Structures are given as C-alpha cells and as structure tokens.
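Here comes just one.
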Amino acid sequence: MCEHPQLTPLAWSWRDPRPAPRWLDAFSAEAPVVWLAWATESDSAAGLRSLLSPEEQDRWARFRQDADRRRFLVGRGLLRVLAGAQMNLPPEQVELVYGPYGKPSIAMRKDRPPWHFNLSHSGDLVLLAFQRARQVGVDVEQVRADLDWDAVALRSFPADQYREWAALGAEDCGPAFFKNWTRREAGFKALGVGIAHGGQPDDRLTYFDLSLPPGYRGAAAIANPSGCETEI
C-alpha cells in the first residue's frame, strides 16, 4: 500500500472562535486545510444553532440521538463560521447548494473567486476540509474492532487492493483497512459522487493521510489540475 503525505489538522479553539477575514487565502493551493473539532464540547457549540438555516434547524431537530445532533451542529455551525469569515459574510447568510449526489457546496458570488469544502464526522470527531483552488474531499472513521473487515474489503476494494490487504498479518489488517477506506471515501467525495457510486476514484487526485487522535483514521483528497496520475 503506497504512502501519501501526512497532514495535521488545525484544532478548533472555542476560546477564540473568530477566524481572520479571508483566512483561507493565507494557505497554499497545493494542499487542503483541515480543521478538527470535538462534538463532545456541546456546551461551547450551543451558540452555533442560531446560525443554522431553517432547513438545517429542521434536520437538527429530526435526529433522534444526541450524538448525531452534536455532530451535525458542530459540522454545519463551524462550516458557516469559517465560510462566513472567508466570504466576509455573517455566518447565517452563507448559502449552501447541493450537487446531484448530495454533496454540499457554497453558493459563490460573481465578485469572489470560487473555493471548495467538505466535511466528515465519526465518533466524537468532526473534520472540515477547505481548498481555495481545487475540489476537496475528507473522511474520518472511528476505529472499530467489531467490524467485519474482510467482508467490507471484499465488497468495496478493487481486486488488487483487496489481495494486497488480505496478505497482511493480523496486527496490520485493521489499521490498513481504515487507511484504505478513508482514502477511497475522501477520493469519491472530492469527485462529488460518494463511495456508493462504485468503481475506483479518479486517479487524477492527490491524497493526504491525516494525523488524528488515537482511535481515529482519516484522509483527504484534492483534484489534481495537472492530470498527473496518483495511485490510491
């Protein structure tokens, strides 16, 4: 299994929740910018609810589990805070639009250059990825020992990737499974089709393995404007 660049997400601080205006412009166009936040800090995140759109408020209320509500609130609330700062808009005025497979994007204005985002959550962790020049995807998974890795890998991985994974020792199978899975999911999300689309993500993508807290695996992917092939 090939190695990819390591990327350490920025940790969101609830003590200073005001990003600088047009903050994304300060980062390179050669890599995504990934923010990390904990959904367990629900008391700090409570004020984000007032920023949600009516449709998001309805979605938040329909979740039956507290954990699902917390993850949705932190993900959408911080998205609006960060997107609003980048666009010099109040967070509640950020408008989202959705692609044919449900991938959200920002409704851009003609007087502002386009930029891209994606978000993912698992367990207590929420990730938001941004890119000012290329389509971006991100995925995080909480490592689960009870998952039937072989059945999922056989159904989801390409044949050569599955054979390589199946040849690993017992201690390596779990970490390798989640590394492969999050890379593939991030790649599909960058393309805006989701992993249920099937097949292999477009190889004109650059992948990044994320350095995350223990118990989590994650990856990000961005479109490769040069069209150079990058193995997944």
Q: What stands out?
A: The chain has six helices and ten strands. The two ends are 8 Å apart (CA to CA). The first helix runs from residue 42 to 45.
